[in-house]
Predict the 3D structure of the following.
Amino acid sequence: MANSTKKFFTDPQRVTSAIKTKIVVEYFKSWASILWGVVKSNNRPHLRYVDLFAGTGKIDGVKSTPLLIMEHVISKPELAESVGALLNDLNSDHIKQLEENLKALPGYETLKRPPRTRTGPVDEKLVDIFTKSNNVPSFSFIDPFGYKGLTLPLVKALVSGFGSDLVLFFSFDSINRAVSNKLVKEHMNALFGQKRAERLHAVAKGMRPDEREELLIEAFIEAVTEDLGYEYVIPYVFEKEDKDRTSHYLIFISKHSRGFNIMKDIMYKESQDKTQGIAKFGYVRQVNAEKTPLLHLMNTPLSDFGRQLCADYAGRSLSRKALRDDFDKHYPRNRFVNKNWRDVLSELEQEGKITCKPPRLERKVQKGEVTFGENTVVTFPAEEKK
Ligand SMILES: C[S@@+](CC[C@H](N)C(=O)[O-])C[C@H]1O[C@@H](n2cnc3c(N)ncnc32)[C@H](O)[C@@H]1O
């Protein structure tokens, strides 16, 4: 086992790794509860958790993602009955330790579908298996050290079935090095699609590191949304702990707005930088609207958001909820959570740019703030007041 790999599981868990696990486990809990509601009337309700780079289940003795997810499954009788897990790792020692750790979980014997483990690389064979068996709603986690095994066909296969969502670890540092390295071009082709990978190879050379970051993440979002047609993507960025540089992203991918909105709330809570209350999920630098429109869409400040609403909805009246639903339909990848909606509309109301029913003076006050309920009706003037 390479020393760095071994250290990952024996050194104290890094803060970033703990946040990654928290986001994934919290999302799994919501996903499983919603999907259980959908499959419970089936003859044999079945949900699936797929973890292809599962590791040992513990980092420095502390339970990590696969163990925490299975612990949650055990704690809910309906999930213990319906969730099947497929846990894979290249390293047979990791799988052996994982099996032992799983069996030591109190209540393990209540699982109707004990987790299936597999030792092997994440390769085309596995992609084939998932492509053919996408009839069970699945939540998948792809958490490699580098980029080997992370391919668009894999992403496609794991998200293609009904109710299936995915979180993946995008190792920016290693992918950034790899786009310039001809020796690993097959991996980059598999990750970005051949034409896009060739373009990246050609243009990335002379760029500053921050420009390359925007370019690469934008290219991957573009591949997922345009080539695969999976509309709902959220990149959550992790900075290097010691430097002002990005080391990796956690990327959420879904076909549906419901999961997207849940994940936005989870990532919002885990985001430190909330300029004007709007989270830069993790940390995202100022991005360029023309060069990287997909990323830019996720970085609109609150003041721009207010201006955009006044322009887009001039002359219209609708409730806060109807407004958000409509906006989300038109801008499916926006990152605004309910708090942002309450804030931006309150601000516009106080600036006299919109009128509301019931008006401010007639609404409840909570914790010193006037509330902005989802049924409050907002009217935008026909032309934005200057
Ligand atoms: C970052 S760790 C996973 C940590 C785990 N997700 C957690 O939260 O505890 C990456 C794992 O991928 C495994 N791995 C490395 N290359 C692999 C490959 N090609 N196929 C499958 N697993 C691989 C390593 O053995 C390691 O256990």
